[in-house]
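FORM 7B: Structural annotation worksheet

SECTION A. Query
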Amino acid sequence: MKFKLPFNKKQMKIIVEESNVDGKMITPSKAGFIQQIKDATNNPFDLIIKFIPPNITIIYIDNLVKDQTLNEHIISNLQNKHNETPENIKGALSIPEVDIYGQLEKAIESIIHGSVLIHLDGYPQAVVANITTRESRSLSAPENESQVIGAQVGFNESLSTNISLIRRYIASSDLCNEKFTIGKRTNTSVALLYMNGIANDQMINSLRQRITSLELDALIDSAVLSEMIDDNSLSVFPQMLLTERPDRFCDGLLNGKIGLIVDGSSMAIICPQSFVEFFQSQEDQNLRWHIATFARLLRFTAILLSVFLTPIYVGALTFHYEVIPQAFLVPLSESRALVPFPPVFEALLLEFIIELLREAGARLPTKIGQTIGIVGGIVIGTAAVQAGITSNILLIFVALSALASFTTPSYMMGNVIRLIRFPIIILAGFWGFYGIMLAFCFILIHLLRQSSMGAPYLSPFYPPRLKDMRNSIIRMPIPFTAKRPALTRPTNEEKFDPQPIKPEKS
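SECTION B. Predicted structure
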């Protein structure tokens, strides 16, 4: 007695080869297939199983597929199908992404990502139709990188939405997009974007190698990925920029940089990044160069004040009274007459209170956080001065330092500025100005040793590049920015021809 198989010898050969290479195969029977899917997915409550007479089984995970597409393009097309094969089912579906898998592992991976499995009783294969849908919030203005002039839209947590935003800015076939999957349990999608013909091939290969060499159980956010692929993950200074602005991301790509977008994260990664670029805002490109230059100089001055103002106060009052102006000695001594603590302890106490208020304001709801920050600062500051715990002059210095730290456009670098102030204050309390100079030299040497994707971190000052220096601390007029920065080592240095818009010399 002969038995006729529901598939030919060629299909059988392909199935056997897949089984030998990849592992467990899909069973031909309907009951066995359903049990395989339940066992592989631990039988979750949102696993939906539907039957279409006479021999079709549909399995998918609820809320991961588009219900309208499922009803109109799959279930309606499979009604009253008799003696069909997986190839015929694939041709009958009017869906762009339809595949046929004989391997169970691929089928499970597909259903977890939002595909529908269609199984015919008697066939050791499953038709996989990708009709995935993802819940995501609507597009809104960036919260951490706000600007007055320029685009008012930011990334959200959807990878496809973020890539579509980038393609709105860069409508070019040179925009390359590579997809990676990271995390054995999360299977997080990561997109690598760069401009072909502009980005450096060596940097692209290096970043691609770092991503593929990661062996993780989970990847949740882009900040975790940036720390793992940094040149020096032990450094407190970030070597890659996290941004939620599509315009800043696209501007980096057009300058020869490489971008990374993680599915589920609203922050994109840009690299390589120099230390100076963390203090530049995207709005600088939209303002007139005079105003943008003033804003940059104000920003850099604020950073110096935030880091060194309080340590200089501590060092001067502890060891170096001779540097204090004579007219300032009397009010300074009167303000500290009732303070029982040394200047270093007084400064650390106030800095700690400021950080407590800042952290409480950030963690509480928006309206309550603003109230706590304002009222708490006023009440605690006034009470501390009246109780003689601190002097009113130091209170002004600490408040000015805290205010100056908010001028940093990058949130990650702003946290670094907040952190390094504490050890500098301690060194100033032990050794005065010598301790401040020791801390400055240590930070400078540390920055000189850092790199971002192999590029020098202190570029364009080390190694010195005079042409790039012009557009670092100050913002040069547009005709003088026709070349891309040497930091990215671009294959095409020319951005545009400056001759038509170059101002005439009188």
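SECTION C. Observations
The first strand starts at residue 47 and ends at 52. Confidence is low (pLDDT under 50) at residues 1-7, 9-22.

SECTION D. Sign-off
Analyst initials: ____
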